[in-house]
Amino acid sequence: MDKKLSLFPVSTQIIQDKLTIGGCDVRTLADQHGTPLYLYDRADLDSAAGLYRRFLGESWPGRWSVTYAGKAFLCASIAQWAQGQGFIVDCTGAGEIGIAVSAGLPREHIVVHGVNKSAEDLQAAIAHAGTIVVDNLSELGRLAKLAKSDSLPELWLRFQPGSSVDTHAYTQTGHSSSKFGMSREQILEAVKICRENDLPLKGLHFHQGSQFRDPEPLGDGIDKALDLAKEIGFKDDWHLSPGGGWGIAYHEDDLPQPPLEMYVRFVAENIKAGCKKRGLTLPHLHLEPGRSLVAKAGVAVYRVGTVKQTAGKTWLLIDGGMADNPRHALYGAKYSCLTVEKATGSPTQVVSIGGPFCESGDVLIEQIPLRAVEEDELIAIPVSGAYHLSMASNYNGARRPAVLLLDNGQARVMQSRETTRDLTRRDGPENA
Ligand SMILES: Cc1ncc(COP(=O)(O)O)c(C=O)c1O
Questions:
Q1: What is the pLDDT of residues 224-278, one digit of tens each?
Q2: Which of 241, 288, 331, 387 to mutate to test the pocket of ligand 1 (most atoms within 8 A of CB)?
Q3: Which domains does the chain have, with CATH numbers?
């Protein structure tokens, strides 16, 4: 039970056998706000942010920033929370930029990513961002044209080091056949274009993948990026981002969350040593975490609608699934769960937990030991804070769940539940 509970946010308690998070009773929240329901624990968010600040502060002697990868989960409240932590927000494209702007983030708190930025994305980035991370030479050509009429934010070039971290193939991004970033030769060509067009080139970025536990492959990315920095001739006031992607534990059978300190120190020590070896001044160091900041703070709560026996399986069919959390369907991601009441009950059966959507792949958990669960009971799935709602869909007319921020016994709605009206809002006027 302790191992399972450690997957839940720091403030989680079981009081009289009932799950409470952020000082709030989860059953009461589900009854008030409906299910599926997403809960974020403010204390857990703050604690993860504090660890990044602490380890960067302790291990990096120069300037540093944490950039929250908004792709993990972005809404106005989370953007404001990130700004409040002193973090920059990484936005992919005009949509996420729009969310950051609606949250009141100033230019210097917005950095823009994207592998194929549209004209709209570039215009939004120029209007609102402090930094654009340029993915490729075509994009740079477009920016060079735009620079004739607009002044550009600072530019970093996204480098493809030719090596990825050890993770699921779908979340590896640094290998040479990856769609992300530029090779060494392309980066040098990009530098030439920047100089010829007087573009504000300020740094390099690379990201070798997500949900990794072994920092070792970052050493290769760092070495190659520093070689490039030397060739480019970055001197004072230059920026280096080795991306994000530090892994977390999703299930009690996983190894525990690898220590953040190990990752931050590995990056800092390797860049320090690499700069010294090459006679480079230390860059402004940026780390770009998403899931390791917000995943564990999030819990998804579902209501069991049907308990069904099929050949060799007991199914708990719940009211959410791949439409709010596509990660099992996408990557075979493995989750755990607790019942919200009688939470400490000993397992008496093995069940599979499936959603209401018309796909056999709409399963959140394959085979988990659980106590006998009755229809109308609630279950809570931990580590639900990253890449669930940001990848959510309206499949089968699903309405995206409400999202609450829990803080010291108070629950605040960060996002309300979508309504059927939201589903028809974009229909043509002839159908209105
Ligand atoms: C460029 C970039 N930076 C940062 C991240 C954050 O990764 P994670 O949420 O695993 O930390 C991603 C994730 O895909 C990314 O593509």
A1: 999 999 999 999 899 999 999 999 999 999 887 889 999 999 999 999 999 999 9
A2: 288
A3: 2-34+297-424 (2.40.37.10), 43-294 (3.20.20.10)
Residue of minimum CA distance from atom 5 in ligand 1: 244
- Whether pLDDT at 314 is above 90: yes
pTM above threshold 0.70: yes
CA of 110 to the centre of ligand 1 (A): 15
Q: Which residues are catalytic?
A: 358
What percent of the chain clears pLDDT 70, i.e. is strictly above it? 100
Q: Half-sphere exposure of residue 292, counting CA atoms within 13 Å on the CB side?
A: 27
DSSP, residue by residue, 352-409:
EEE-SSS-TT-EEEEEEEE----TT-EEEESS-SSSSGGG---GGGPPPPEEEEEETT
User: How many angstroms does the Cα of residue 407 sit away from the middle of ligand 1?
Assistant: 27
Chain mean pLDDT for the chain: 95
**Segment 77-97 mean pLDDT:** 98
The strand pair at 402-407 and 410-415 is best described as antiparallel
CB 238 within 8 Å of CB 284: yes
- The verdict on the CB of residue 247 being under 6 Å from ligand 1 is no
